[in-house]
Amino acid sequence: MTRNVDLDQARAAFTRAAAGEREVFGDFFLTRLFGFDITFPAEACEVAFEVQDFMFNPQGTLHGGVLATALDISMGHLIHRHAGPGTTLEMKVQYLAPARSGRVTCHAEALRRGGTWFLRAEARNEGGHLLAYATSTWKLLKTAAQASPKETPA
Predict the structure, then answer these.
(1) Strand (E) positions, the chain?
(2) Any idea what the CATH number is for the domain that residue 58 is in?
(3) How many domains does the chain fold into?
(4) Residue range 94-144, pLDDT digits in tens
(5) What percent of the chain is modeled with pLDDT above 70?
(6) Taking the model in full, what pTM does it have?
(7) 3 state DSSP class of 79
(8) Which of 3, 90, 129, 133 has its C-alpha lying 20 to 30 A from 112's C-alpha?
């Protein structure tokens, strides 16, 4: 399959991503590169983005790794907002349909909360069709203060 990538679009995305001065939740290189728009409706997190040709696999559809990244980021930002920093212990993605254009929205929700979190996320196109879903297990990370609490005088 012969396909031309819009190099100006790809360069603009990379320049936007590299221009960031900070690397924090919601604003780090990958979120800027893919143009992720992160919102928090109710008890959920959504990551939405426009499919661009530089995100394609050789078959001309959205690469599964880009979609997995968006699903993972939606779940990671949800846990970070409600419980603090966490790390993915495992994630399973089921791909159901390809995306070739338009806007994709990943919607993440917590299934169970605690020291270990269980999360689910769905990716849908603009028409609401399910493209993929993921389930994952996360572990909360100790903050610097939790890892080395200050000693209190006796």
Answers:
(1) 37-39, 44-50, 86-95, 103-112, 116-124, 130-140
(2) 3.10.129.10
(3) 1
(4) 999 999 999 999 999 999 998 899 999 999 999 999 999 999 999 998 765
(5) 77
(6) 0.83
(7) helix
(8) 129
Among 77, 123, 133, which Cα is nearest to 102's?
A: 123
For residue 141, being part of any structural domain is answered with yes
Q: Which domain holds residue 91?
A: 7-147
- Within a domain: residue 16? yes
Per-chain mean pLDDT for the chain: 86
Q: Cα separations (Å) of 30 from 3, 63, 95, 128, 130?
A: 24, 15, 21, 25, 23
Residue 154, domain member (yes or no) = no
Q: In what order do the strands lie in the sheet with 116-124?
A: 37-39, 44-50, 103-112, 116-124, 130-140, 86-95
